[in-house]
Specification:
This protein is mostly helical. The chain has helices at residues 2-21, 29-50.
Length: 58
């Protein structure tokens, strides 16, 4: 599952940059991160909490 999430993230980031370079998307990545960074932290925390075989578990 972890590899699938990483692949999906890479696809979405690549699609974002492609659409931006083609002029089809007029959104700044800096503005998105500046606005949504707390949500990114929350999602990372949830992912760490729900991942099977986390570093703290044996």
């Amino acid at each position: 599952m972890r590899g699938n999430i990483g692949a999906i993230v890479l696809i979405l980031v690549g699609a974002f940059f492609l659409l931006s370079n083609l002029g089809l998307l007029n959104i700044s990545l800096r503005e998105l991160i500046a606005t949504w960074w707390p949500l990114i932290l929350i999602l990372l925390g949830i992912g760490m909490f729900l991942s099977p075989g986390g570093r703290g578990r044996k």
